[in-house]
Amino acid sequence: MQGKVARRLLLALVALLALTIVGCPSSSSSDTYTLSGTLTKSGVDDCYAYLKLVALGEDGTGAALYWTKSSAFSGGTATYSIGDIEEGSYTGYAFIDGDGDAVEGAAALPDSDSDYATDGGQDFIVDHDIVADLPEEAWVPTGT
Which residues, 6 or more positions from 37, have their beta carbon under 8 angstroms from its beta carbon? Predict the structure, then answer.
């Protein structure tokens, strides 16, 4: 009888040790996603766009949770990619720095002289990689 109890205890300890070595699956998700796409706007070659995600419902002056600077426009197009975005709901904003005077980084905002911005924000539910292109008609001059 004592041999059976000792054997069961030994098996339980071996199983526990195996779980410790191998590890248990975590219930928390650490998946991140990417938002990327192509921007189209004529007349802005060699300019850059700034794109950011803010908390859902915030306006364009909200603190950037994620942001990026696009490639330089060439032939009327540029590309962008924001990576490592945690699953969640966000509002996205973008602007083209038409005269190169934007403060670089997460705090970049359009000014009212020669920049173009999207007309309002776009809400995103990020639970997978997303491709979101911005066509020519998405941009409005900020000085009007």
Answer: 79, 80, 131, 132, 133, 134
Token code pair at residue 32: 């991140």
User: Which residue's structure tokens are 């540029």?
Assistant: 78
> DSSP states of 50-103 as a string?
EEEEEETT--TTSPPSEEEEPPPPBTTEEEEEEEEEESEEEEEEEEEETTS-SP
Above 90 in pLDDT, residue 28?
A: no
Residue pair 85/31 in contact by the 8 Å Cβ criterion: no
Distance CA 97, CA 62 (A): 18
Spatial separation of the C-alpha atoms in residues 75 and 19, rounded to whole Å: 57
What is the greatest pairwise CA distance in the chain?
89
- Domains for the chain: give ranges and CATH numbers: 32-141 (2.60.40.10)
In the chain, the percentage of residues whose pLDDT exceeds 70 is 79
Chain centroid offset of residue 136 CA: 22
Average pLDDT score over residue span 82-109: 94
Helix (H, G, I), strand (E, B) or coil at 36: strand
